Amino acid sequence: MVDKSKIGEVIVIAQHRSKTAPAPMSLSGPAGKRVVVSAAKRVMKTHSEVIKALAKR
Fold first, then answer.
1. Among positive and negative, which fits the CA dihedral 39, 40, 43, 46?
2. Stated pTM of the model
């Protein structure tokens, strides 16, 4: 069971995170290809039901 007195503390901690800028990275070469392909696979796996539904339209 969740202790309701601690829920407010978690929300306050999450709101005070600092913003970090994305790190620059090059997507050229074999290392960049691995990053792009793995990202595409992750998107396809996550949204596979939607992709299949759109394909059947």
1. negative
2. 0.52
